[in-house]
Design brief:
Layout (H helix, E strand, L loop, with lengths): L1 H4 L1 H5 L6 E2 L6 H5 L12 E4 L3 H13 L4 E4 L15 E4 L6 E4 L4 E5 L4 H9 L3 E2 L10 H7 L6 H4 L6 E7 L5 E5 L4 H10 L5 E8 L1 E2 L3 E9 L4 H13 L5 E10 L14 E9 L3 H14 L4 E8 H5 L11 E9 L4 H10 L9 E6 L3 H4 L15 E9 L2 H14 L2
Helix pairs in contact: 9-12
């Protein structure tokens, strides 16, 4: 493969490093978050900026190579790793600069959500990010961007102000509502189909640095009631809050979890508050009254720690398969499908998450961006089969679609 693509020639054209199968770290360089993806690209171009990206694109096009872009390498499908192709790797481009006065941040194309949060939180600011901090910013921002701030700030892509884009013909463009507005519209939801984004400018929002968390956990036999409680709280969720339900997720080995329940699956309701402690207390009070949880954890915590709360549910190198579905309502039928199918999973790590949508998410018109989900929907359900090995994942791959109805 190296001889066909000619990686030695590519090395002379890039400032950054080019890695192929002859290099000692080839296997680590080609690894992605999803351990079930085992692709062998001919070359991995660790680009240092737009000029490297343009040179790599030209090189690949001249040779008819399949080209893909790697940011955080956190995708479920492995699209960032083509067998025998050329990977444009942005993982060395992780800088984030913040202008607190204008509430804006410039983020390099290979940054992770954790990189962004660490930089913005110093100023009490944030942009909507994923609920797993090692998620790459690029794929998130170009596809949608669900997170705790969905009610307060909308999707990640709703806060994109401009982008630095390298096109297929090697041009570097500044894309915004005023410059190349057609491309700007397409980038917000159209994924990586229009070029390589090497930088993002985002609008930031006042968040924290301390926020509030209420986490409630029920045993499997109370799953139906737990989902109904989450639905009721979501119906009147204010903009300065976020709500995520989990089904089938195992209780963590954390100090606030009774030892007897650690590692056991159940149903969780997490309510984050971005206002005052009193506002958060009033928001979570009905949960306690409705159904006594197996355990609860109510505390102030830094926003960056809230963003890391679910990191251990999807560690790097795990085998994963995911299906998602937007719902107008979390109906009794949907609740039944989830509660009936959760016990049928084989891997203790597999689970479903239900995000409450609304507020700023619903403010954006259906045609204002290329986002593929309806702004009228109230919930999104992600069913994730996760296993430590391929054999166990193969069983839950068929379980995941059935659990979303």
């Amino acid at each position: 493969m190296t001889q066909i693509l000619g990686t030695d020639a590519l090395r002379t054209q890039l400032t950054g490093r080019v890695i192929d199968k002859s290099d000692f770290d080839y296997d680590s360089a080609r690894s992605v978050w999803n351990g079930g993806i085992d692709r062998r690209p001919a070359a991995i171009a660790r680009c240092t900026g737009p000029s490297d990206v343009a040179a790599a694109i030209a090189f690949g096009r001249e040779r008819g190579a399949r080209i893909s872009v790697r940011g955080g390498a956190h995708g479920s499908w492995g699209a960032e790793e083509p067998d025998g192709g050329l990977v444009i790797d942005l993982s060395d481009l992780r800088g984030v600069s913040v202008d607190p006065g204008s509430r804006r941040a410039w983020c390099s194309g290979g940054a992770t959500i954790g990189d962004v949060d660490a930089a913005t939180a110093r100023h009490g600011l944030a942009v909507t990010g994923a609920t797993i901090s090692h998620t790459g910013l690029g794929g998130l921002a170009l596809g949608g961007g669900l997170g705790w701030l969905i009610h307060k700030a909308g999707l990640t892509l709703d806060n994109l102000l401009s982008a630095e884009l390298v096109t297929a013909d090697g041009r570097t463009l500044c894309v915004s509502a005023d410059e190349h507005p057609d491309l700007f519209w397409a980038l917000r939801g159209g994924g990586g189909n229009f070029g390589v984004v090497t930088g993002f400018e985002f609008r930031l929002h006042d968040v924290g640095p301390l926020v509030y968390l209420g986490l409630f956990f029920w045993p499997p036999e109370h799953g139906t009631e737990a989902l109904r409680i989450g639905r009721e709280v979501a119906a009147s969720l204010p903009r300065n809050a976020g709500l995520v339900m989990t089904a089938g997720l195992a209780a963590p080995a954390a100090p606030f979890v009774p030892v007897a329940h650690r590692g056991r699956p159940g149903y969780g309701l997490m309510i984050a508050g971005f206002g005052s402690a009193l506002e958060h207390h009033r928001l979570i009070a009905p949960v306690r009254e409705a159904l006594r949880p197996l355990f609860e954890f109510v505390t102030p915590l830094p926003y960056v720690e809230l963003q890391k709360l679910l990191d251990d549910t999807a560690p790097w190198g795990i085998h994963a398969y995911e299906k998602g579905l937007y719902l107008q309502e979390l109906s009794e039928e949907a609740i039944s499908v989830l509660s009936d199918n959760i016990p049928r999973k084989s891997s203790p790590m597999s689970f479903a998450t239900i995000f409450s949508l609304g507020g700023a998410f619903a403010d954006v018109g259906e045609q204002e961006t290329a986002f593929g989900g309806s702004r009228a929907t109230r919930f999104v359900v992600n069913v994730t089969a996760i296993a430590p090995d391929a054999e166990l994942l193969a069983i839950d791959r068929s379980w995941a679609p059935s659990s979303r109805g």
